[in-house]
Aldehyde-activating protein
Amino acid sequence: MNEIWFRTGEATVLAAEGQYTDAMPEVLIGSVKGPVGQAFAGMMGQVQGHTRMFVVRDINQMVRPATMMTTKATIESLAYVELLGGVVQAATGDAIVDCLIDGTLPKEMADEICMIVMIWLDPRCADHAELDQADLYRTNYEATKLAIARAMKSEPSVETLIANRKSVKHYALDGVVDYD
């Protein structure tokens, strides 16, 4: 496989009924020697409200390729941090390792590339008395695997985007824009 310089992908996996566990990771994959590696190294400091951490599956089990994760929502509580650094981080890590196992990520390049994953963890999860942590794991695992696969395949393709320009629209545009 040739060098991987700059690949992007995203995915959304929806929560079970009554949960706020939708997962919407956005991934950036590239060479540790290129712009992704520079961005990765630049994330080593912390930004208030947007914790950055290496993805680990458990203590002393940092994933390869080296992956940094951060949040899209501002962290406001310890309960949120515990979900992010617990269930969500573990799901993300498991998905990355499984992408190595199934060949989505090339094992032979695991030390030559790095990834940045931006995580959506709904702030309502931290205070949800009936939070289904298994669903939180499921959505983040499935969405991370899908986002990585899309990045590695450069999906959706330009042809797909052009073909569905008038048939697919952002959910927030319902009643706002008519594509007919």
Remarks:
- The domain at 6-173 is CATH 3.30.230.60 (Ribosomal Protein S5; domain 2).
- The chain has one domain: 6-173.
- The longest helix spans residues 78-101.
